[in-house]
Design brief:
Layout lengths: L16 E4 L2 E4 L3 H12 L4 E5 L12 E2 L1 H9 L3 H4 L5 E3 L1 E5 L5 E6 L10 E3 L2 H12 L5 E5 L1 E9 L2 E9 L23 E5 L3 E3 L6 H6 L3 E4 L3 E9 L11 E3 L2 E8 L2 E9 L3 H6 L2 H11 L16 E3 L3 E4 L3 E2 L2 E3 L14 H22 L4 H33 L9 H9 L5 H8 L17 H4 L2
Parallel strand pairs: 1-12, 2-3, 2-13, 3-9, 13-22
Antiparallel strand pairs: 4-8, 5-8, 6-7, 10-11, 11-12, 14-20, 15-18, 15-19, 16-17, 17-18, 21-22
Helix pairs in contact: 1-4, 1-8, 8-9
């Protein structure tokens, strides 16, 4: 689909309002918000579109890795993050052949300011970044506005179209709460920019419209997500628990626990047919602390995540860059998706802030960003493939989770080796630091806490 018209006035020939910015980002997840905040601190006028009215979704990735915690330090935001209710996890474990925990990745061995990862609600993390963006005059986050299509000028992307996600006109916030809203935001709007960044997730509309090819990776599992309100205390761990084809990962939160059940791909209908009591019994067997609370589980509240692992062969077209899940969707195992998305956002600011300020981004610069991010992406994919090979047979009921005997021997005999997977999961191959223009000092009083 090609649109060769060029907008020069505030209203486009189509009747839509048209805005001109330095960069437009579709998607307000970790990749989009981080890229937008850092670019704004670098003097780039950026608009971030998020189709939902808020960030509150139960089934988002909650793991914040050591390199992301370091980024919060560099941005002067760690003191704010520390106020968020979170749990600290110092390593990733698997069950050994004797039933004991085997440390796969030991974050405490990393020479980092925060050698651990945390489990914190992603909506709190995103709200923190969005609030920081409010302090930046170049950062404009539009909630409830969904990108619908790209705008083309011959073979170059020059912008995108968006609409109010409710499909109706919405009143913008007013300064005076007592004054009636007298103006409305249009239901449809067009944005023009030298670069469109698609951070719109694994089902990216922009990537599909641009025809960027995807390489599918193997996954034979899906995930059920549900929550249980409980006062029970569970260990802070991201390790799968259970056996006999009934594997779970529990994420403790204040007042409730978020639970993932790993199921064979395509088994959703068959397992639901077994009845809700089968699921309740499996949860109680795996987590005895929750036995008194499992009666509240109902299938209406059990959501299916279609696990996809893939990578785009090319992340860009002329005027368009895709980042995060839109070009490298990961499974939930290891909780690696958020970290990779954040690092992509940092790399965008480091690589593209200067050309965006000048108003021109070449495809060579987009290619350079992809090449910068590929080593870490491929390393994480390789490590996650190894985790899948250990976990998937247990999901299908073939045998318990266990690492290959040589791997288990190496990790238990030479514990220092656990630093290698910790580095890949927690930092990556190419460390991404906030550029100097995006850094801020934390309040002195907060640093002493």
């Amino acid at each position: 689909m090609v649109d060769t018209a060029t907008a020069t006035d505030s209203t486009h020939a189509s009747g839509h309002d048209t805005e001109h910015v330095d960069c437009i980002i579709s998607g307000g997840g970790p990749a989009g918000i981080v890229a937008g905040l850092l670019l704004a601190r670098g003097g780039v006028k950026v608009v971030v579109l998020e189709k939902h009215e808020d960030f509150f979704r139960d089934f988002r990735g909650d793991t914040i890795h050591p390199s992301t915690l370091r980024l919060l330090d560099e941005l002067g935001l760690y003191h704010r993050f520390a106020r968020i209710t979170h749990r600290r996890v110092e390593g990733v474990t698997l069950t050994g052949r004797g039933g004991e925990d085997i440390m796969l990745a030991d974050f405490t061995r990393l020479d980092l300011p925060h050698p651990f990862m945390t489990i914190a609600p992603q909506w709190d993390f995103l709200n923190l970044l969005a609030e920081a963006g409010e302090d930046e005059p170049n950062f404009d986050l539009r909630m409830g506005l969904e990108a619908t299509s790209l705008i083309w000028d011959n073979d170059r992307v020059v912008g995108l179209r968006a609409r109010n996600s409710s499909g109706t006109e919405a009143a913008p916030p007013t300064v005076d709460a007592d004054a009636p809203a007298t103006t409305t935001a249009p239901a449809a709007v067009e944005f023009r920019a030298p670069l469109v960044i698609a951070a719109d997730g694994r089902w990216s509309k922009a990537r599909a419209e641009a025809g960027l090819p995807i390489r599918e990776l193997t996954s034979t599992i899906d995930v059920w997500w549900f929550r249980i309100d409980t006062a029970a205390v569970l260990p802070d761990s991201v390790a799968p628990r259970g056996g006999d084809g009934k594997l779970f990962v529990a994420i403790p939160r204040d007042g409730h626990v978020q639970i993932a059940r790993l199921i064979p791909k395509g088994a959703d209908e068959r397992l639901r047919a077994e009845g809700i009591e089968a699921l309740r019994d499996a949860v109680a067997e795996t987590y005895p602390q929750l036995a008194a609370d499992v009666g509240q589980i109902e299938f209406d509240d059990v959501k299916l995540l279609d696990v996809r692992r893939n990578e785009a062969r090319r992340w860009f077209a002329d005027g368009l860059l895709c980042i995060g899940d839109s070009v490298h969707a990961m499974s939930p195992l290891g909780g690696v998706g958020v970290n990779l998305a954040v690092q992509d956002g940092i790399a965008v600011a480091r690589t593209l802030a200067e050309p965006l300020r000048s108003g021109s981004v070449r495809t060579a610069e987009l290619r350079r960003l992809q090449l910068r991010r590929l080593p870490t992406t491929r390393a994480v994919e390789l490590l996650q493939s190894g985790i899948h090979r250990m976990v998937e047979p247990a999901v299908h009921g073939h045998r318990p989770i266990r690492p290959p005997a040589p791997v288990e021997w190496l990790l238990t005999t030479f514990p220092a080796l656990t630093r290698i997977p910790a580095r890949i999961l927690g930092v990556g191959i190419t460390a991404e630091h906030a550029p100097d223009f995006a850094r801020r000092e934390e309040p002195t009083v907060e640093r002493t806490r």
